[in-house]
């Protein structure tokens, strides 16, 4: 019998949900995994029409923060073809918001509620307040009438979304600078405790990023990051970078046999904890 279990993970590199799928049966199966949060049902990135055998473990780095989420496994073909199973609700708790390259989880930058002595980044007071919802409109003149007809397309998701930041920490500035140097599209996840104006997982195309440093009378340098983007669809591809490398394994194990001996659990256990 097909089963799905979920767990919230809050360690590095960023909050996420681990999804375990078992009981698909012997032989090839094709499945899709769907996430439902805030009444919106969306496919889990990288798990749309995925081919596998019997069981798997996947990580959802796009999971919205601070709200109940359920996952549905749809078996399209295979020994359990036609089955649909829904998980129990899981909530990924986080006091901070997170901005990241959706293809590189290690790029994730945490955004706190307020600047602290330990440094960090916060949203500016003007962030996430003003939005535009644009529709394409074509006007057609009608002979003999002073009122043209209008052809109106579907209104788009929010444009001009302001996620500008303040940071007073050199390390955090370096991470923000590196993030936008490599990513034109970013994933923004903001818990309801910080703002409820954005969707739980919001993908933004950011064309221009401004960086301004100043030194106020307090003496510590503060950097303003001016960031605006338009809401776009999530990328189709899943995570492109490995969350661990063979070098990480080699640090812990001298030989492959040692790695095999350390993997005392099942194949799924090894997927969940590849470094032991």
Structure description:
By secondary structure, the protein is mostly beta strands. The protein has three domains: 3-94, Immunoglobulin-like, CATH 2.60.40; 97-231; 244-276, no CATH class. Helices cover 12% and strands 38% of the residues. It has four helices and 20 strands. The strands form four sheets. Strands 10, 11, 12, 15, 16, 17, 18, 19 and 20 form a nine-stranded antiparallel beta sheet that branches. Strands 3, 4, 5, 7, 8 and 9 form a six-stranded antiparallel beta sheet that branches. A hairpin with a 7-residue loop joins strand 19 (209-214) and strand 20 (222-231). The longest helix has 13 residues, at 170-182. It is flat. The two termini are 29 Å apart. The mean pLDDT is 89.
Question: Can you describe this structure in just a few lines?
Answer:
This protein is mainly beta and 276 residues long. The protein has helices at residues 170-182, 246-252, 256-262, 267-272; strands spanning 3-9, 16-22, 28-37, 40-43, 50-53, 56-60, 68-77, 84-86, 90-91, 97-101, 104-111, 121-123, 137-140, 149-152, 161-162, 165-167, 185-189, 202-205, 209-214, 222-231.
Low-confidence stretches: none
Helix content: 10-25%
Query: Structural class, judged by helices and strands?
Result: mainly beta
Average the pLDDT over all residues and give the rounded result.
Answer: 89
Q: Work out the strand percent.
A: 35-45%
**Tally of alpha and pi helices:** 4
Largest sheet: 9 strands, antiparallel
Helix and strand element order = EEEEEEEEEEEEEEEEHEEEEHHH
From the N-terminal CA to the C-terminal CA, the straight-line distance is 29 Å
Oligomer: single chain
Q: What Rg, in angstroms, do the CA atoms define?
A: 23 Å
Described by the principal axes of the CA atoms, the overall outline is: flat
Number of strands: 20
Number of domains: 3
């Amino acid at each position: 019998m097909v089963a799905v279990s979920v767990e919230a993970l809050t360690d590095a590199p960023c909050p996420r949900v681990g999804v375990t799928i078992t009981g698909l049966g012997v032989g090839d199966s094709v499945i899709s995994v769907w996430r439902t949060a805030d009444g919106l049902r969306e496919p889990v990135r990288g798990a749309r029409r995925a081919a596998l055998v019997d069981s798997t473990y996947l990580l959802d780095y796009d999971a919205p923060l601070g709200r109940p989420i359920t996952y549905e496994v749809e078996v399209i073909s295979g020994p359990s073809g036609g089955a649909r199973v829904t998980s129990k609700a899981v909530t990924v708790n986080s006091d901070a918001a997170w901005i990241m390259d959706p293809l590189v989880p290690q790029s994730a930058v945490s955004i706190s509620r307020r600047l602290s002595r330990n440094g960090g980044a916060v949203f500016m007071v003007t962030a996430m307040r003003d939005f535009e919802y644009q529709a394409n409109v074509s006007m057609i003149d009608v002979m003999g009438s002073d009122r043209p007809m209008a052809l109106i397309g579907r209104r788009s998701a929010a444009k001009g979304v302001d996620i500008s930041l303040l940071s007073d920490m050199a390390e955090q500035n370096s991470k923000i600078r590196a993030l936008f140097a490599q990513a034109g599209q970013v994933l923004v996840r903001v818990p309801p405790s910080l703002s409820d104006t954005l969707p739980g997982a919001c993908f933004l195309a950011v064309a221009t990023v401004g960086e301004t440093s100043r030194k106020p009378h307090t003496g510590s340098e503060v950097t303003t990051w001016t960031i605006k983007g338009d809401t776009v669809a999530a990328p189709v591809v899943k995570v492109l970078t490995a969350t661990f490398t063979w070098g990480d394994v080699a640090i812990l194990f001298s030989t492959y046999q040692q790695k095999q001996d350390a993997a005392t659990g099942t194949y799924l256990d090894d997927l969940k904890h590849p470094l032991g």
